[in-house]
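Margin note from the TA: students keep mixing up input and output lines. Inputs are the sequences; the output is the structure of the whole complex. Example:
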Amino acid sequence: GAVVSQHPSWVICKSGTSVKIECRSLDFQATTMFWYRQFPKKSLMLMATSNEGSKATYEQGVEKDKFLINHASLTLSTLTVTSAHPEDSSFYICSARVGQVFSNYGYTFGSGTRLTVV
Amino acid sequence: GQQLNQSPQSMFIQEGEDVSMNCTSSSIFNTWLWYKQEPGEGPVLLIALYKAGELTSNGRLTAQFGITRKDSFLNISASIPSDVGIYFCAGRGIYGGSQGNLIFGKGTKLSVKP
C-alpha cells in the first residue's frame, strides 16, 4: 500500500516552455504532498508543501510564480515549471504524507522526474 | 533552521562486511526515517522510528532512535552488492507544525565490492 506514482519519469523541453509534473497517490488519499528538488549528488531540498484545496506553502527562496503547484484533489498534485530555463534542469521528486495521526505520519516518495531544459 | 549531519559521506566496503552510518542534530526530532535511493529513482523507505530508544530491524537492516532524540543510526549487516545506493536519514522535528515536514541528511553513498 501507500504507492505514489509520478509522471513523467523524464522530460526534455525547450527553454521558455512550461512543463507539468504529476504526482498521484494510487491507493490512499493524500491531503498533504511535498515537492522536492535534488541536484546531482546532493540531498533532497524541499520546495513546497501542497495541501489539498488550498494554496501551497513555499520554502524560502523558491519562486511560487515559477513553480506552480496545484493540489485539486486528494489523489493528485501537480508541479508546473513555467518558462523553464536550463538552470531549472534537475531531478524533481514528490512525496505524499500517509497516515492520520501526527505521531505516526509516513512519507512515501514518487520515482522522480528528470527535467532537462535545452 | 534544523539541520541533520549525516556521516560518513561515502563508504567503500567489501561484500559481507557490516556497515554503520548515523545522523545527528542539535535539535530534537520526534521521527527518524531512513531511506535508500538508487540512481534515477525516488527514495524508498527502509525503516521508520517514532519513539526515543526504539530499535527496529528490517531484514539485515537495523536502526535506532537515539535516547536524546537528536540522533539515529542505521546498520547493515553482511552487505551484498545490491545494497549499493545512497542512504538518507530524515527527521521530523517537534516544531514541524501541521505540515510535518521532513529534513534530510546529505546522504551516505555506499559502494560494495563483490
